[in-house]
Write a structure and sequence with these properties.
The chain is α+β, with helices and mostly antiparallel strands. It has seven helices and seven strands. The radius of gyration is 33 Å and the shape is elongated. It is found in: Nucleus.
């Protein structure tokens, strides 16, 4: 009798399991899961891959204008170590003549500041001591008193948006040395020492 009950229980369990399997198969078919699984096993058609590459290229080229393929880099100037040192020396001489009441620092230009990523990192100690602790607009004033607003990113301690326009407008190149003089809380007077002069 006990053996017969166990046999019935096993049979009912097996029937229940088969019923569940059939229900799951129907659910998967209603959701098109077998076709989806099959499509994942086969590689995408070449035309689809080309479309994806075109879209990726469009985002890089037109998204933020960062694609260097479309930027004319033929006019890049690479400063020699001697020319770079000379520009820094001239900048230090000019810096020593400026009013001491306004804090200053010298920033030698690199390709990434003038033709590449257009990001200008500022000295950490200077930022901690004199610049705002949150993102602000900082104005750069050139020697002709023309003003250029830039975005100062406090956490990254550097100039972002607006710096590119300033660098291009002033034809900055690798090796130029800039003196930044903080004349107001959010204003720098910028003196440019050209590497090729």
């Amino acid at each position: 009798m006990v053996k017969e009950l166990k046999k019935e229980e096993k049979l009912s369990y097996e029937e229940f399991r088969q019923q569940r399997l059939e229900e799951n198969r129907k659910r998967m078919e209603s959701l098109n899961l077998p076709k989806l699984a099959q499509s994942l096993r086969t590689p995408p058609k070449p035309s689809l891959m080309i479309a994806i590459d075109v879209e990726r290229t469009r985002r890089v080229t037109y998204g933020k204008g960062r694609c260097s393929k479309h930027r004319d880099l033929s006019n890049r100037v690479y400063a020699s170590p001697q020319a770079r040192a000379s520009a820094i020396e001239k900048a230090e001489a000019l810096e020593s003549t400026l009013e001491e009441e306004f804090p200053t620092f010298i920033k030698p230009m690199l390709q990434s500041h003038t033709t590449g990523g257009f990001w200008l990192g500022l000295p950490v100690d200077f930022c901690k001591k004199y610049l705002p602790r949150k993102d602000e607009t900082i104005t750069l004033i050139d020697e002709d008193m023309d003003e250029s607003p830039t975005n100062y990113l406090a956490l990254k301690r550097g100039l972002s948006a607006g710096w590119r326009g300033f660098a291009i407008a002033h034809n900055l190149v690798d090796g130029d040395a800039l003196i930044f003089q903080l004349v107001e809380t959010r204003k720098f007077k910028v003196y440019i020492i050209r590497v090729n002069e």
